[in-house]
Amino acid sequence: MKVRIKSWTGVATWRWVANDENCGICRMSFESTCPECALPGDDCPLVWGVCSHCFHMHCIVKWLNLQPLNKQCPMCRQSWKFNVH
Amino acid sequence: MANMAVSRIKREFKEVMRSEEIVQCSIKIELVNDSWTELRGEIAGPPDTPYEGGKFVLEIKVPETYPFNPPKVRFITRIWHPNISSVTGAICLDILKDNWAAAMTLRTVLLSLQALLAAAEPDDPQDAVVAYQFKDKYDLFLLTAKHWTNAYAGGPHTFPDCDSKIQRLKDMGIDEHEARAVLSKENWNLEKATEGLFS
Does the pLDDT of residue B47 top 80, yes or no? Predict the structure, then answer.
Protein backbone atom coordinates (compact mmCIF):
# COMPACT_ATOMS: atom_id res chain seq x y z
CA MET A 1 0.00 0.00 0.00
CA LYS A 2 1.26 3.43 -0.82
CA VAL A 3 0.32 6.51 1.14
CA ARG A 4 0.63 9.84 -0.52
CA ILE A 5 0.70 12.87 1.73
CA LYS A 6 -1.14 15.68 0.06
CA SER A 7 -0.54 18.31 2.69
CA TRP A 8 0.55 18.62 6.31
CA THR A 9 0.38 21.20 9.08
CA GLY A 10 3.24 21.43 11.56
CA VAL A 11 2.40 22.09 15.21
CA ALA A 12 4.97 23.07 17.79
CA THR A 13 5.00 24.10 21.42
CA TRP A 14 7.58 26.27 23.07
CA ARG A 15 8.66 27.05 26.58
CA TRP A 16 11.32 29.07 28.27
CA VAL A 17 14.25 27.08 29.60
CA ALA A 18 14.80 28.89 32.89
CA ASN A 19 16.43 27.67 36.07
CA ASP A 20 13.27 28.39 38.04
CA GLU A 21 9.49 28.20 37.64
CA ASN A 22 8.62 31.72 38.70
CA CYS A 23 10.04 35.19 38.28
CA GLY A 24 11.56 36.16 41.65
CA ILE A 25 10.28 39.72 41.29
CA CYS A 26 6.62 39.40 40.31
CA ARG A 27 6.32 35.71 41.37
CA MET A 28 4.35 34.93 38.21
CA SER A 29 5.16 31.78 36.30
CA PHE A 30 7.71 32.18 33.52
CA GLU A 31 5.21 30.44 31.26
CA SER A 32 2.93 33.42 31.66
CA THR A 33 3.83 37.10 31.45
CA CYS A 34 4.85 39.78 33.89
CA PRO A 35 1.79 41.48 35.44
CA GLU A 36 1.98 44.35 32.95
CA CYS A 37 1.72 42.21 29.81
CA ALA A 38 -0.99 40.13 28.18
CA LEU A 39 0.79 37.85 25.72
CA PRO A 40 3.67 35.55 26.64
CA GLY A 41 6.54 35.18 24.21
CA ASP A 42 8.65 37.77 22.48
CA ASP A 43 6.55 40.62 23.84
CA CYS A 44 7.46 39.74 27.41
CA PRO A 45 10.84 38.03 27.20
CA LEU A 46 12.99 36.53 29.90
CA VAL A 47 16.51 37.75 30.53
CA TRP A 48 19.41 36.20 32.39
CA GLY A 49 22.09 37.76 34.52
CA VAL A 50 25.71 36.67 34.55
CA CYS A 51 24.90 35.34 38.03
CA SER A 52 22.51 32.89 36.24
CA HIS A 53 19.32 34.30 37.77
CA CYS A 54 16.46 34.84 35.41
CA PHE A 55 13.58 37.35 35.41
CA HIS A 56 10.95 38.83 33.13
CA MET A 57 12.81 41.58 31.31
CA HIS A 58 10.17 44.15 32.29
CA CYS A 59 10.53 43.24 35.97
CA ILE A 60 14.33 43.34 36.19
CA VAL A 61 14.58 46.57 34.17
CA LYS A 62 12.09 48.22 36.49
CA TRP A 63 14.09 47.02 39.50
CA LEU A 64 17.44 48.16 38.07
CA ASN A 65 16.04 51.59 37.18
CA LEU A 66 15.03 52.07 40.81
CA GLN A 67 18.55 51.30 42.12
CA PRO A 68 20.46 54.56 41.92
CA LEU A 69 23.88 53.21 42.87
CA ASN A 70 24.46 49.51 43.19
CA LYS A 71 22.56 47.67 40.54
CA GLN A 72 22.37 44.21 42.09
CA CYS A 73 20.56 40.99 41.34
CA PRO A 74 17.50 40.87 43.63
CA MET A 75 18.20 37.19 44.32
CA CYS A 76 21.91 37.03 45.15
CA ARG A 77 23.01 40.70 45.42
CA GLN A 78 25.86 40.25 42.99
CA SER A 79 26.21 43.26 40.77
CA TRP A 80 23.85 42.76 37.86
CA LYS A 81 25.17 42.17 34.35
CA PHE A 82 22.99 40.95 31.52
CA ASN A 83 24.15 37.62 30.20
CA VAL A 84 24.15 38.08 26.46
CA HIS A 85 23.83 34.70 24.81
CA MET B 1 -3.11 49.48 44.22
CA ALA B 2 -0.82 48.60 41.39
CA ASN B 3 -1.40 45.30 39.70
CA MET B 4 1.92 43.73 40.59
CA ALA B 5 1.73 44.62 44.29
CA VAL B 6 -1.69 42.99 44.73
CA SER B 7 -0.99 39.85 42.75
CA ARG B 8 2.29 39.34 44.53
CA ILE B 9 0.86 39.87 48.01
CA LYS B 10 -1.90 37.36 47.26
CA ARG B 11 0.68 34.78 46.22
CA GLU B 12 2.86 35.49 49.22
CA PHE B 13 -0.09 35.21 51.55
CA LYS B 14 -0.70 31.67 50.27
CA GLU B 15 3.03 30.94 50.51
CA VAL B 16 3.06 31.89 54.21
CA MET B 17 -0.11 29.90 54.85
CA ARG B 18 1.51 26.78 53.39
CA SER B 19 4.86 27.30 55.11
CA GLU B 20 6.40 25.06 57.73
CA GLU B 21 6.64 27.99 60.13
CA ILE B 22 2.84 28.28 60.20
CA VAL B 23 2.60 24.66 61.24
CA GLN B 24 5.09 25.29 64.03
CA CYS B 25 3.13 28.42 65.05
CA SER B 26 6.30 30.45 64.76
CA ILE B 27 4.94 33.02 62.29
CA LYS B 28 1.44 34.07 61.34
CA ILE B 29 -0.15 36.51 58.94
CA GLU B 30 -3.67 37.86 58.46
CA LEU B 31 -5.52 40.44 56.41
CA VAL B 32 -6.63 43.71 57.95
CA ASN B 33 -8.79 44.98 55.09
CA ASP B 34 -9.92 43.70 51.70
CA SER B 35 -7.55 45.83 49.68
CA TRP B 36 -4.41 43.78 50.51
CA THR B 37 -2.54 46.99 51.40
CA GLU B 38 -2.35 46.28 55.09
CA LEU B 39 -1.62 43.05 56.87
CA ARG B 40 -1.04 41.92 60.38
CA GLY B 41 1.93 39.68 61.13
CA GLU B 42 2.81 37.78 64.24
CA ILE B 43 6.11 36.24 65.28
CA ALA B 44 6.92 34.03 68.23
CA GLY B 45 9.83 35.10 70.41
CA PRO B 46 12.78 32.82 69.57
CA PRO B 47 13.92 30.21 72.12
CA ASP B 48 16.81 31.08 74.45
CA THR B 49 16.08 34.79 74.21
CA PRO B 50 14.28 37.07 76.68
CA TYR B 51 11.42 37.12 74.15
CA GLU B 52 10.78 33.36 74.39
CA GLY B 53 7.15 32.50 75.05
CA GLY B 54 5.90 35.86 73.77
CA LYS B 55 3.83 36.59 70.65
CA PHE B 56 4.67 39.86 68.91
CA VAL B 57 2.20 41.52 66.58
CA LEU B 58 3.41 43.55 63.60
CA GLU B 59 1.78 46.15 61.40
CA ILE B 60 2.66 45.57 57.74
CA LYS B 61 1.81 48.22 55.14
CA VAL B 62 2.36 47.33 51.51
CA PRO B 63 3.29 50.29 49.27
CA GLU B 64 1.91 50.57 45.74
CA THR B 65 5.42 50.16 44.44
CA TYR B 66 5.88 46.77 46.15
CA PRO B 67 8.00 44.66 45.56
CA PHE B 68 10.31 47.36 44.21
CA ASN B 69 10.17 49.06 47.60
CA PRO B 70 10.04 47.28 50.97
CA PRO B 71 6.89 46.88 53.06
CA LYS B 72 6.58 49.28 55.99
CA VAL B 73 6.72 47.20 59.16
CA ARG B 74 6.54 48.17 62.82
CA PHE B 75 5.87 46.38 66.10
CA ILE B 76 2.40 46.90 67.53
CA THR B 77 3.27 44.83 70.60
CA ARG B 78 5.58 46.86 72.83
CA ILE B 79 9.06 45.37 73.09
CA TRP B 80 12.37 46.12 74.82
CA HIS B 81 15.05 45.63 72.15
CA PRO B 82 17.99 47.83 71.04
CA ASN B 83 16.88 47.92 67.39
CA ILE B 84 13.18 48.55 68.01
CA SER B 85 11.75 51.74 69.45
CA SER B 86 10.19 51.06 72.85
CA VAL B 87 7.90 54.04 72.18
CA THR B 88 6.73 53.68 68.56
CA GLY B 89 7.69 50.13 67.59
CA ALA B 90 9.78 51.45 64.66
CA ILE B 91 12.34 48.91 63.47
CA CYS B 92 15.95 49.44 62.46
CA LEU B 93 16.73 46.62 60.04
CA ASP B 94 18.73 47.09 56.84
CA ILE B 95 16.53 44.90 54.63
CA LEU B 96 13.52 47.10 55.43
CA LYS B 97 15.50 50.10 54.18
CA ASP B 98 18.48 50.28 51.81
CA ASN B 99 19.16 46.56 51.62
CA TRP B 100 15.71 45.54 50.43
CA ALA B 101 15.67 43.29 47.36
CA ALA B 102 12.66 42.60 45.17
CA ALA B 103 13.08 38.85 45.64
CA MET B 104 12.38 39.11 49.38
CA THR B 105 8.92 38.21 50.62
CA LEU B 106 6.66 38.70 53.62
CA ARG B 107 7.82 35.31 54.87
CA THR B 108 11.52 36.21 54.68
CA VAL B 109 10.80 39.58 56.35
CA LEU B 110 9.03 37.89 59.28
CA LEU B 111 11.84 35.36 59.62
CA SER B 112 14.43 38.16 59.51
CA LEU B 113 12.60 39.99 62.29
CA GLN B 114 12.59 36.82 64.33
CA ALA B 115 16.33 36.56 63.74
CA LEU B 116 16.73 40.18 64.83
CA LEU B 117 15.11 39.31 68.16
CA ALA B 118 17.75 36.63 68.62
CA ALA B 119 20.68 38.79 67.51
CA ALA B 120 20.46 42.45 68.51
CA GLU B 121 22.82 45.02 67.01
CA PRO B 122 23.37 47.51 69.87
CA ASP B 123 25.89 49.49 67.81
CA ASP B 124 23.21 50.40 65.28
CA PRO B 125 20.37 51.23 67.67
CA GLN B 126 16.84 52.39 67.07
CA ASP B 127 16.33 52.95 70.79
CA ALA B 128 19.44 54.47 72.37
CA VAL B 129 18.18 53.93 75.94
CA VAL B 130 17.73 50.20 75.41
CA ALA B 131 21.01 49.90 73.52
CA TYR B 132 22.87 51.65 76.35
CA GLN B 133 21.39 49.27 78.91
CA PHE B 134 22.20 46.28 76.66
CA LYS B 135 25.87 47.29 76.54
CA ASP B 136 26.25 48.64 80.06
CA LYS B 137 24.02 46.43 82.23
CA TYR B 138 23.23 43.30 80.27
CA ASP B 139 21.61 41.46 83.22
CA LEU B 140 19.19 44.32 83.74
CA PHE B 141 18.51 44.39 80.00
CA LEU B 142 17.55 40.69 80.10
CA LEU B 143 15.29 41.23 83.09
CA THR B 144 13.60 44.26 81.50
CA ALA B 145 13.12 42.54 78.15
CA LYS B 146 11.60 39.47 79.86
CA HIS B 147 9.37 41.69 81.95
CA TRP B 148 8.12 43.55 78.85
CA THR B 149 7.57 40.20 77.10
CA ASN B 150 5.45 39.15 80.05
CA ALA B 151 3.54 42.44 80.26
CA TYR B 152 2.80 42.93 76.55
CA ALA B 153 3.38 39.68 74.67
CA GLY B 154 2.07 37.05 77.09
CA GLY B 155 5.51 35.82 78.13
CA PRO B 156 5.87 33.33 80.99
CA HIS B 157 8.24 35.11 83.40
CA THR B 158 6.73 37.35 86.06
CA PHE B 159 8.82 39.76 88.09
CA PRO B 160 6.98 40.71 91.30
CA ASP B 161 9.68 43.26 92.12
CA CYS B 162 9.07 45.12 88.83
CA ASP B 163 5.32 44.88 89.27
CA SER B 164 5.40 46.31 92.78
CA LYS B 165 7.58 49.24 91.68
CA ILE B 166 5.19 49.97 88.82
CA GLN B 167 2.31 49.78 91.29
CA ARG B 168 4.05 52.34 93.52
CA LEU B 169 4.21 54.82 90.61
CA LYS B 170 0.61 54.01 89.62
CA ASP B 171 -0.42 54.89 93.15
CA MET B 172 1.11 58.30 92.53
CA GLY B 173 -1.16 58.73 89.50
CA ILE B 174 1.28 57.68 86.79
CA ASP B 175 0.00 55.68 83.82
CA GLU B 176 1.15 52.03 83.90
CA HIS B 177 2.93 52.11 80.52
CA GLU B 178 4.73 55.33 81.37
CA ALA B 179 5.72 53.95 84.77
CA ARG B 180 7.14 50.82 83.13
CA ALA B 181 9.03 52.86 80.53
CA VAL B 182 10.58 55.23 83.08
CA LEU B 183 11.56 52.45 85.48
CA SER B 184 13.07 50.44 82.61
CA LYS B 185 15.08 53.46 81.52
CA GLU B 186 16.30 54.13 85.08
CA ASN B 187 17.38 50.50 85.58
CA TRP B 188 14.48 49.87 87.97
CA ASN B 189 15.76 52.48 90.44
CA LEU B 190 12.46 53.70 91.92
CA GLU B 191 14.00 56.84 93.42
CA LYS B 192 15.53 57.95 90.14
CA ALA B 193 12.35 57.15 88.23
CA THR B 194 10.26 59.20 90.66
CA GLU B 195 12.73 62.05 90.43
CA GLY B 196 12.59 61.97 86.65
CA LEU B 197 8.80 61.97 86.63
CA PHE B 198 8.23 64.76 89.13
CA SER B 199 11.12 67.15 88.59
Answer: yes
